[in-house]
Design goal:
The complex is a heterodimer of chains A (290) and B (165). Chain A contains twelve helices and 13 strands. With 290 residues, chain A is an alpha+beta fold. In chain A, α10 runs antiparallel to α11 and α11 runs antiparallel to α12. Classes of the chains: A alpha+beta (290), B alpha+beta (165).
């Protein structure tokens, strides 16, 4: 076997064997949409390219009583079209549907999106809002982390060089509503200049009993905005101005002195408005027969 | 390593390395030069081919990941020397000027009509959002896809009528 040949494991056991045999010398390829243009620069004569596309174990969007398990190799196209996610994890389906173009969504994977950890990535804030955990395997064992802890900085994740991200787990919360919004330089085929994801648990009388608000693009992919969460917990979904003010403060805290600060503080208000409107729509009681 | 895949209906085998992209395989090994490299980073869509009936940027697809798949390029659209209805519509609506974006546009349109035979303008625009054109201003392209859809639907209806006893 030529040393320039890609390795093509078909089971997790085979993948772990590769990670053992080539410690620190592997590049994992999921959908390839981030890695392929850089491949010539990142592959060295010692590095082995590991193609994950043969790992059916890393596919599936599977519910059980407590959670929905999303395989790392599931594509943006599959996430966006999935009925279960469009009912129970709307922010994730929406985020996946806004990534790139049809061509990109056909190949780009949810695992690769988090592992690459671009600050502008769209699915990490949605996953974090939905309290998702990532599941990592290595020859040393397994571990899980909250998505917002897995993303450690701009293009930085907690993935060790002998680890693979295999799955996300989203806790199922009956009645949970969620939404994602993004603004880029185009309506499609656009890296986010700003994105926002919110998940909330409505309770009686238009109140919100739990809320998670995450912003992306501000130096790293999933920053929590707890002051904005408190506005929802105290006032429900109707105090747009207060919610937006908390978001603007979060932006200023994250990127003080950046030349894009004024733009992003302005744009976050539009995203806040859109997300609240979408959450209010989801929170409306469903009429029977519709 | 050697991989096997199907290209334009033909089973083929090819030698690939870790760095071989699908576009390299198609253009250099199989001389399917309808596949154009516009940007090399997946933003322009000129290199679009269909992989199992879905559009992908061949500049971003590793050749090894195309093993076992069904690839369609424009060379595969002609049937017995007859142009596909989308190709004819592009000619009739002047949807091609320099032609560089055209193969990618036609294949994305093909994928769209396979999934949605009756798209409206908004659906066509969304589907083609990953294919950039610097010449036509896009309008003739969208007109061509709409026209191809109408011909396709009419032709399918006609075949349905003829098939009934």
């Amino acid at each position: 076997m030529n040393r320039t040949d890609p390795l093509t494991p078909t089971t997790t056991a085979a993948l772990l064997d590769i990670l053992t045999r080539f410690p620190g010398r592997t590049r994992l390829m999921a959908g390839g949409t981030d890695l392929t243009p850089r491949l010539g620069r990142v592959l060295t004569p010692e590095t082995r390219l590991v193609d994950l596309s043969g790992l059916d174990e890393l596919r599936g969007i599977v519910p059980n009583a407590a959670e929905i398990r999303v395989g790392a190799m599931e594509t943006m196209a599959r996430l966006a079209a999935d009925d279960l996610l469009n009912r129970e994890a709307v922010a994730l389906a929406q985020a996946a549907g806004r990534v790139g173009s049809w061509q990109i969504r056909t190949r780009a994977t949810v695992g690769g999106n988090s592992a690459n950890a671009s600050p502008a990535a769209d699915t990490p804030p949605a996953l974090a809002a939905l309290a998702a955990t990532v599941h990592l395997v290595s020859p040393r064992g397994q571990r899980s982390l909250a998505v917002e802890d897995f993303i450690t900085g701009p293009n930085q994740s907690a993935l060790a060089d002998d680890e693979a991200l295999v799955e996300f787990r989203l806790p199922r919360r009956p009645g949970q509503i969620s939404a994602f919004a993004k603004v880029g330089s185009r309506t499609e085929m656009s890296i986010a200049r700003l994105n926002l994801a919110v998940a909330a648990l409505p309770s009686k009388g238009k109140k919100i009993s739990e809320a998670r608000v995450f912003l992306g693009t501000l130096g790293r992919a999933a920053r929590r905005a707890q002051a904005a969460e408190r506005v929802l917990l105290e006032h429900g979904l109707s105090r747009e101005e207060d919610f937006n003010r908390a978001l603007m403060d979060a932006v200023a805290e994250a990127i003080p002195g950046r030349s894009t600060l004024a733009y992003k503080q302005s744009a976050i208000q539009a995203l806040g408005q859109d997300v609240l409107a979408e959450l209010r729509r989801q929170a409306r009681p469903k009429r029977s027969g519709t | 390593m050697i991989i096997e895949l199907t290209i334009n209906g033909q089973k083929v085998r090819a030698e690939v390395t870790a760095e071989t992209r699908l576009i390299d395989l198609l253009r250099d090994t199989f001389h399917l030069t309808s596949v154009k490299e516009g940007c090399g980073v997946g933003e322009c869509g000129a290199c679009t081919v269909l992989l199992n009936n879905d559009p992908v940027c061949s500049c971003l697809t590793s050749a090894v990941q195309a093993r076992g798949t069904d690839i369609l390029t424009v060379e595969g659209l002609e049937r017995n020397g007859e142009l596909d209805v989308i190709q004819t519509a592009f000619l009739e609506h002047e949807a091609t000027q320099c032609g560089f974006c055209t193969p990618g546009m036609i294949l994305t349109a093909k994928a769209l009509l396979l999934k949605n035979p009756r798209p409206n303008r908004a659906e066509i625009k969304k589907a083609l959002a990953g294919n950039l054109c610097r010449c036509t201003g896009f309008v003739p392209i969208i007109d061509a896809v709409l026209a191809a859809a109408r011909i396709g639907v009419a032709s399918a209806a006609k075949q349905g009528k003829e098939a009934r006893p």
